[in-house]
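Working notes for the structural subgroup meeting. M.R. asked for a predicted model of this chain before we commit to crystallization trials. I am recording the input and output together here so anyone reviewing the notebook later can reproduce the run.

Input as submitted:
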Amino acid sequence: MLKILKYSFFDLFRSRWSLFYALFFLLFTGTLMVFSDDFSKVIISLMQAILILCPLIATMFGVMYSYNSREFTELLLAQPVKRTSIFWGQYLGLGLSLTASLIIGIGLPFAFYGIFQSSEIWNFLILLADGIVLSLIFSALGFWTAMKCENRIKGFGAAMMLWLFFAVIYDGIFLFALSIFKDYPLENFALATALLNPIDLGRILVLLKLDISALMGFTGAVFNRFFGSGLGIFISAAVLIFWLTLPVYSIGYTAKSKDF
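Returned structure, recorded in token form:
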């Protein structure tokens, strides 16, 4: 698995798409730094881009890499190698290449402007960890979707619908439910629905650390009220890790049962 991981990582990390991904965040973060010398404001602005773009790009990478490496995968399956080792190695190579591009794109501008000597270092690390975990979650979802769908058009469509659901549709359904049942106590409902969306959890995780009640929204305010900032951060981080293990387990389960 480590050999497959190493090959997949370097194969993807040298690609022009990984370079473009890192360069985009490098230019975007550098531009924010130029126009603002307040690290907290830059972190808030960057959070909006990370919550939307990291899941989208990770999903696209996961689908494209799974389909483009199909012939290589079939060759590996003919060898005396465990199926789970093949697919987990490919997924980890994909996830680590996205992680490395994100760290370079965001970390270099912050390091250049002295984030390690700032009191905002922990907020920056929470933001970076949030982007890494979301990238790993959605690249796993994209990879697993491509494994389940033989047809490439259906696979791309299903993966994009997954991202669109978590990024846009889910919040729309939630707000619609709030408007209909506004006369009822909805705190427990808000907590439960927040746990079912990794993007919302990522947003709550950063905002709880920044302690900005005005930007938390309803679910973030409920998290802060019920659990406080410290316990809320721990719970949201723990559920994000669960969200990460779920698609990774699905990749292994599909690898064992699917007839490639």
